[in-house]
């Protein structure tokens, strides 16, 4: 996936909401039409029709829809090969090449598991890492 695709806002349904097709645990992806209209869907390849209220509901109802971090509920195959830090005072490289991801601990390794690892949870949410193309 590209960095832009990984950074598209996603929301997880955390409680039942009446009169929707969503169930607890569904991950809602933002889907944008060519005319600029957008809404959220559980599957970006097969968007729901007629859901223009979903963006406002997802963004304004945090008790029902939890905004997810870009890396949550991703497979190793979906994770980026390169990341950069959001920390203000980086003394090393701004971008890091990741050779292997451990998605149980949310750690990326740049060479081997003995050194040069990057935890997505360590500085969350203020100075974490974001994907780079």
Please tell me about this protein's structure.
The protein has 133 residues and is mainly beta. It has two domains: 65 residues, no CATH class; 56 residues, no CATH class. The protein is built from two helices and ten strands; from the N terminus they run H-E-E-E-H-E-E-E-E-E-E-E. The strands form three sheets. The protein has a four-stranded antiparallel sheet with strand order 3-2-1-4, covered by helices on one side. A three-stranded antiparallel sheet has the order 6-5-10. The chain has a three-stranded antiparallel sheet with strand order 7-8-9, with no helix packed on it. A hairpin with a 4-residue loop joins strand 7 and strand 8. The longest helix is centred in the middle third of the chain and has 7 residues. The termini are close together. The model has no long low-confidence stretch (mean pLDDT 78).
